[in-house]
Design a protein that fits this description.
Elements (H helix, E strand, L loop, with lengths): L31 H6 L9 H11 L4 H15 L8 H29 L4
Length: 117
């Protein structure tokens, strides 16, 4: 074990550092249950990442952006698997492209049909 203050190697059962003289605080080792709970799932993709990609493909504009950002936050916190990161980014990009396409469609539609009033 190493001293938290000076980094010197000390015995595991020591109460004081031999090098700097500071008191060594013992930290309880996590139990096996705590270790297992803190391991993020390495399974498949999260539902949010798949939903982000699918709604992005369908051109649902803001929905895939929100879903993708929420899942990326979950990945950064270690709650969700990193495997869905690519789906999240693709969903966000497709959502942004959908917003641009919808704006162009609205502008073209207003321009074409403005003469019919």
């Amino acid at each position: 074990m190493k001293c938290e203050h000076c980094g010197a190697k000390i015995d595991d059962d020591s109460t004081f550092c031999y090098s700097c003289g500071k008191k060594v605080e013992k930290i309880a080792a996590p139990t096996m249950e705590e270790k297992v709970e803190n391991i993020p799932s390495q399974g498949g993709f999260s539902g949010l990442s798949i939903a982000s990609l699918v709604t992005g493909i369908l051109g649902m504009a803001i929905i895939p952006i929100i879903l993708g950002i929420v899942d990326l936050i979950r990945i950064n916190k270690g709650i969700a698997s990193h495997r869905g990161k690519v789906f999240d980014i693709a969903g966000i990009v497709l959502g942004a492209l959908a917003i641009v396409v919808w704006i162009i469609i609205i502008i073209v539609g207003l321009t074409v049909f403005s003469g019919f009033y």
